[in-house]
Please model this.
Amino acid sequence: MKGFLLIAIVVAAFAAVPLVVHSNVTLNFLVVALLIALAGQGWNVLGGYGGQYSFGHAAFFGTGAYVTAVLQMRYGVNAWIGFAAGIAAGSAVGAIVGTLAFRAGLRSSYFALVTLAFAEVLRILASVAPITGAGVGMLIKLDLRAQSFQFQSRALFYLVILALVAVALVTAQMLERSRFGAWLIAVRENEDAAMALGVDAFSIKLGAMVLSAAITAAAGGFYAQYFLFVDAGIAYGTWISIEALLTPVIGGVGTVFGPLVGALAAKSLGEGAKLVTGDVPGLDLMIYGAMLVLVIRFVPHGIVGAFADVSDRIKRRVLAARAPAREAVHG
Amino acid sequence: MVEPLLSVEGISHRFGGLLAVDAASLWAPAGSITSLIGPNGAGKTTLFAVISGFLKPTAGRVRYGGEDVTGEPPHRLARRGMARTFQITKPFAGLSVRDNILIGAHLRHPARADALAVAETVARDVGLGELLDRPAHTMTAAARKRLELARALATEPKLLLLDEVLAGLNPSEIREVVPVIRALAGRGLAVVMIEHVMQAVMSLSAHVFVLAEGRIIAEGSPAHVTADPAVVEAYLGHGAAAKVGAHDVH
Model:
C-alpha cells in the first residue's frame, strides 16, 4: 500500500506543475522526459525485473509510433484507436521476438544482440516500404482536437503522458507485489533454481516481454501524436533503444521509480549541457556516456538503488546493534 | 504391490562420448528416506538432473505417481510435487531469505500474503527463522544449504530430491539438519538423498542404492550395502575388499 501511496503523491505533484509553470519550453522538456521515462519503464519490466537486457526496444517504440501514424493517415482511423492498435501491434512484435529468442534459449548478450537485430531489420524495412512513407517519413495531419489525440495546449499533452507514466508506475508496483513479478525476479536471479521451484521460465519471460513491449509502444504512439512526424530513424532508431535502456540503468534497474528518476536526471543534464554549449550535435549522447560511466562506478544500482542500499545498510546496522541485546536476554 | 511414488527404470544418459548414467534403476516409496551413494563422478547428480527434468535421458523411463513423466520440463514436475535442491547451491542472491522461500511458496499459493505466511513457517521449520531478512548472498555455506531445503519444501512437495545437503556442514550442523530430514519422511514425503556423509546415510535411510561408473552396483539396507565387496571396491579401488577383509581377520 505504501508503494501505491508514494506513486499517488508523486503523480499528484507532477500534475500540479502546469498550474505553476506556464513556460512551453519547460513543459516540452517535461513531456519529453516523461516520454522517455515511459519507454524506459517498458524496458525496466523486462530488463530490470526480468534481467533480460534488450538492446532493441526501438522495435516496440517504432511499431507503436508507425501503427498510430499509418492507421490515421492511410486508413483514416481515429487517432485514439490508432494509438490503442499501436500498443497492440507493439505487444505482438514483443510476442514474436520473445517467442523466437526465448525458445532458442538466448540469454544475456545473445539476447541483447538479437533484439538489436530485430529493431534494425524493422528500421530498414520502414525506410523502404511505401506504406510507412519510406525514406521521407510520415507527417500526421494537424488537427488540434482532443478526439484526434492532439491538443492546443502543451499542458494537456503533458497530463496525457503523465497519466500513461502513472499507469506504468502502478504496473511496476503491482509487479513487485504479485506472483508473476516474484517469478520474473526469480528468473532474473537464477533461472534453473526458478524452474526447479515450478516457474515456467519461458512463459514468464514471454509475458514480461509482451508487457514491456506494450508500455514502450505506448511511448512510441504518444511520440507520433506529439511531434506529428515519424520516420524510420526516429521510430526504429537506436537512439530510443539506448534511451529506454539508459534511463532505468541511471535511475535504478528493477525499481518502480528508477526509469522516471533516470529520465529526469539524464534529460536535465542533456538540456543543461545544450544551454551551456549550444546545440552541438551528439553532445547529449556524450553526456549519457559519461553519466553511465559515473553511475556504474559510483552507484551501480542506480540513483534509486543507491538510496535503497543506504537505507538497507542503516537497517542492518540497527539490527546488528539490537542482536547482542537479544542474546543477553536469552542468556 | 503398490507402485512406489518414484520409480526410475533403466535410465541412461550420454554426454557425447561419455555414458554418465548406464541403465540405472531405483525407486523411492512415500514416507521413507532412500539414499543414493557412490564415489565422485559416479553420475549421481546427472541421474538427479534426469529425474527432475533438467536433462532428457538417452534411454529409460521415469515414473512418478503412477505416470510416465520422462522428459517433462522441471517446472511441470515441480507442479506435480517433485522438488529438488542443488549440490552447488543456487540462491536468488539478490533477494532476502524470506523472498527466496516466497518464490517456492508461490507455487501453491498465488496470493502474496498466503505465500509469505507459508514461507515464514517453512523457514522456522528448517531453522532459518532468525535470518528471514538477511540477503541470501551474505549467508554462510551451511545457511545456504538450509535455504535450498527451505525453498524446496515451500513448494509443498511429495517427493524431495536432496543433492548433498549435508556436504560442507560441520558435525553440529549435521546433527541439526538430520532430524529435519527425518521429520519430512515422517510426514509422508518420499525423500531421495545423494549423500557422502555416511553417518547420516546409515542412520536415516531405509534403502540405499549405490551408483558407480553410471551403474547401480548394489542396493539394500545400509548395513547390507556397506558390507558388499563390490561397494567397497568401488570406493577404495580394485582388490580393496580383499585387503579390508584380511585386515578384519587379524
Remarks:
- Chain A touches chain B through 20 residues (CB under 8 Å).
- The beta strands of chain A are 138-139, 229-230.
- Confidence is low (pLDDT under 50) at residues 326-331 of chain A.
- The radius of gyration of chain A is 21 Å.
